[in-house]
From TrEMBL:
Organism: Microbotryum saponariae
Signal peptide: none
Residue ranges, annotated region (Disordered): 97-182
Protein name (database record): BZ3500_MvSof-1268-A1-R1_Chr11-3g03559 protein
GO MF term set: DNA-binding transcription factor activity, RNA polymerase II-specific; zinc ion binding
Biased composition (Polar residues): 97-121
One Pfam match: Zn_clus
Transmembrane segments: none
Main subcellular localisation: nucleus
Domain Zn(2)-C6 fungal-type: 29-59
Length: 784
């Protein structure tokens, strides 16, 4: 994977996240380039040509290395602007001879003083910023060649006359010397408006001097850049801890180092800088204080902003997250984290792989990182450099995370798992997890054993975390089973046994795991006090409820992936059925059942969308709709009604108007986090308005995609960290539980049997807080 095209934001001085660009070169070409007789850029420690070919680059003994600092984008822009101003001044000088000006607004200085300034050994040398000439002198408060101005035009006494200044531009064959930077406004004024009145010149001079104090080139902005960068980094690191994503085992090793990272931001190694970039990307996605990311736009609060601005909000957040992720990728590559095996490097690779999975519908970019992480893990497990204790601790911390990420990749990409069946035992030996076995103890029994506590003792945080991880492992085992069935060696081979029976068995296993996951959700919601050991984490129960819900959404993904697979037109090629059976008839029956299951999980997804709207961490609604993109036609299926062509056969499988409103509310909030939700929101709202006779009777020509009905309410993504509650009260009115024991909850299958009554959702829609971003009056006319 090439990282040359990755998005790299401009670094600022003292940036705590982005290191300065510097280039280390050698005095001779590398050995491989000399051998091939090609041009080498002589970059140390590996040239660009060898890095691109993924070959070991070496220069041999006796090579000298020189470090060259890249001046940075801002300096290059300043040089170009200064050269442009010089060319414009020369153009005016060739057209007409400027007259002298000795008004009070002219900045003058004697040639003698300029000469003495140039010969001053103590003066700071500046070149290339203002034309082809150079200037020197001590600029107050600045060392970058951009002066500090007082805001008032300097005195005109005792200096060079205006005719001298204009004469400097009469000869086009001589290079332009702009002189001291404080003379630039005066030079521009004298060149452009030589015949203006004294009063007009004073006004223009005041304006030019005032402009020098604005923007990123001003002294205040440059002095505050380093501290602002550090403050933003600290905020994003803190914000990552309030996201439930930080509780995933893939990020556990990185979050444990958070105090050290925050205390040593200015002196971190490349591996720790990559860890900071990963955690900052999590915080940038979930931070409710979007103004720190430059997303606080006037007009959003009162709804007067144009519709395109609403997409800009999510796009700018998306770009910030991608830039941080790309920075982490660059550090992993150029910092040699991928090539050098160590536990620290492995922890960063595991976290980076999980970060990329969260923002990819088809996790192709993260698969390269995961492939290197699994290989490094297996090498370290067999390495003689680590003792047995370190090996077991690494397996306990990272093995289950690698297993889960590999299962997600295999299912969504429909490719064989990177971890073979023979290597599974190595990932689970001597850990608190076991390889799932549907023929052995069931998941419900395992969870009840893990959550059972002695009488009078509260549930520990370790037990709760172990139960959530157990559920996640079983869910990922189902994903791995699907990948094994659809990509195995028997798939589409002549005279191969049919795997349709295995897919039908997988449906039943999904029902079993789904029932246990919902029991765990209700068990966590029934807890009224946070478990011991969670002091300092006000959202611990809320986060573990969300983690259990997100485990169930992975089952929803699997149902959608199975539906896509069964609807493939080439499914019958090489697939047979049992002896004497008609494979076409079998597949048709399975497709009918698959459509019914997809409609049921759509209703479940709508319920989870409104649940996310009531949670403390509302950014997870973005992940929900990202995962629904695995089924591209989900909005079309959700809008179908009973009796319509191809629609649901009964109301049990029909998405109700209330559930459609839950989808719309979730998509309105998801637009705040990513622009990709706007397309689905437009499809959903236009479909609703097209089917609604009440809206058509009003005669309104607008079909606003961010429009909401008068009875609907929106949820603010802004949550005050200081007002966090230490209980699970926000779910109490939604979950009506009969007790805290896990076995007291009846199983709930995704697809009820024919003789079962339609099950009602356990959650009721409560009054929601209002969104702090008002919808625009018309979204369609905004150009969506």
């Amino acid at each position: 994977m090439s990282t040359a095209q990755s998005i790299r934001p401009a670094a600022v001085s003292g940036d705590a996240v982005f290191i300065h660009d510097e280039r280390r070169t050698t005095n001779k070409s590398c050995f491989l380039c000399r051998e091939r007789r090609v041009r080498c850029d002589r970059t140390w420690p590996a040239c660009k040509r060898c890095s691109k070919r993924r070959e070991d680059c070496h220069y041999g003994p006796g090579v000298s290395v020189e470090t060259k600092n890249d001046p940075g984008e801002s300096v290059r822009v300043a040089e170009l602007e200064a050269k442009l101003a010089a060319v414009q001044a020369q153009l005016y000088a060739t057209q007409k001879e400027p007259s002298s000006y000795t008004g009070s607004g002219h900045l003058q200085g004697t040639s003698a003083s300029a000469s003495s300034s140039n010969n001053d050994p103590g003066g700071q040398r500046h070149s290339g910023l203002f034309g082809t000439g150079s200037f020197s002198g001590s600029v107050s408060g600045s060392g970058s060649g951009i002066g500090s101005y007082s805001g008032k035009p300097p005195s005109s006494s005792g200096g060079r006359s205006g005719s001298d200044t204009g004469a400097a531009y009469t000869n086009p064959n001589q290079p332009i010397s702009m002189g001291h930077p404080e003379e630039l406004p005066s030079t521009i004024l004298q060149t452009i408006l030589p015949q203006a009145s004294s009063q007009d010149k004073e006004v223009l001079m005041s304006f030019l001097f005032g402009q020098n104090k604005l923007g990123t080139a001003s002294l205040d902005s440059r002095l505050a850049a380093a501290q602002l960068a550090q403050s933003l980094t600290l905020h994003l690191l803190d914000a990552s801890q309030y996201c439930c994503c930080s509780k995933l085992s893939s990020f556990r090793a990185l979050t444990d180092k958070l105090p050290y990272l925050k205390a040593n931001l200015s002196s971190l190694s490349p591996v720790n800088q990559a860890a900071v970039a990963i955690l900052c990307a999590i915080g940038a996605r979930g931070s409710p204080h979007s103004a720190l990311l430059g997303i606080d736009i006037p007009g959003l609060a009162n709804g007067t902003a144009p519709p395109s601005v609403y997409l800009t909000v999510g796009a700018r957040r998306e770009n910030a997250c991608r830039a941080l992720a790309d920075r982490a990728i660059d550090l992993c590559w150029y910092g040699r984290l991928i090539k050098e095996g160590s536990r620290e490097n492995l922890e960063v690779l595991v976290g980076l792989s999980a970060l990329l999975i969260l923002d990819e519908v088809q996790p192709r970019k993260s698969r390269f990182i995961l492939r290197n992480a699994t290989g490094m893990f297996e090498d370290l497990q067999r390495s003689d450099d680590l003792d047995q204790r370190e090996t077991l601790d690494m397996r306990q911390t990272l093995a289950s995370a690698l297993f889960r990420d590999d299962a997600v990749h295999a299912a969504q990409l429909n490719q064989p798992p990177l971890i073979s069946s023979f290597e599974l035992e190595e990932y689970f030996t001597c850990t608190d997890q076991r390889i799932p076995d549907f023929g052995g103890p069931q998941l419900s029994a395992i969870l009840e054993q893990q959550l059972r506590t002695p009488d009078g003792e509260p549930l520990s945080l370790e037990a709760l975390e172990r139960a959530v991880n157990t559920v996640s492992v079983w869910v990922c085992f189902c994903q791995r089973t699907f990948a094994r069935i659809t990509t195995g060696r028997w798939f589409r081979r002549p005279r191969a046994p049919s795997a349709l029976g295995d897919l039908a068995t997988l449906w039943r296993q999904i029902d079993t795991v789904h029932s246990s996951v919902q029991r765990l959700q209700q068990f966590i919601v029934a807890l009224t006090e946070p478990p011991p050991g969670s002091e300092g984490d006000p959202y611990v129960l809320d986060h573990y409820v969300l983690l259990a819900v997100r485990a169930d959404t992975r089952l929803i993904d699997l149902v959608n992936l199975m539906h896509k697979f069964l609807m493939r037109p080439d499914l019958l090629d090489g697939w047979g059925g049992p002896p004497g059976a008609n494979p076409v008839e079998i597949i048709q029956r399975m497709r009918i059942e698959s459509v019914m299951r997809v409609r049921k999980v759509l209703k479940l997804s709508a319920f989870y969308a409104q649940l996310y709207l009531q949670s403390q961490d509302k950014h997870v609604v973005h992940h929900l709709f990202m995962q629904l993109e695995l089924l591209p036609s989900w909005t079309f299926l959700a809008l179908q009604r009973v009796g319509s062509p191809g629609g649901p056969t009964s109301e049990e499988f029909e998405v109700t108007p209330e559930e459609l409103e839950w989808f719309a509310m979730g998509l309105r909030l998801a637009v705040y986090y990513t622009p990709r939700a706007a397309v689905r929101l437009h499809e959903l709202t236009t479909g609703q308005h097209r089917k609604s006779s009440a809206v058509s009777s009003t005669g309104s020509s607008a079909t606003p995609a961010l429009y909401h009905s008068p009875n609907s309410k929106l949820v603010s993504p802004v949550v005050s960290y200081a007002n966090a509650s230490n209980n699970n009260a926000q779910y109490a009115s939604n979950l009506q539980n009969s007790g805290a024991a896990l076995g007291s909850f009846p199983p709930i299958s995704i697809l009820p049997q024919a003789d079962e009554e339609p099950l009602q959702l356990q959650f009721s829609l409560d009054d929601l807080q209002h969104f702090d971003i008002a919808p625009p009056p018309d979204f369609v006319r905004g150009g969506v």
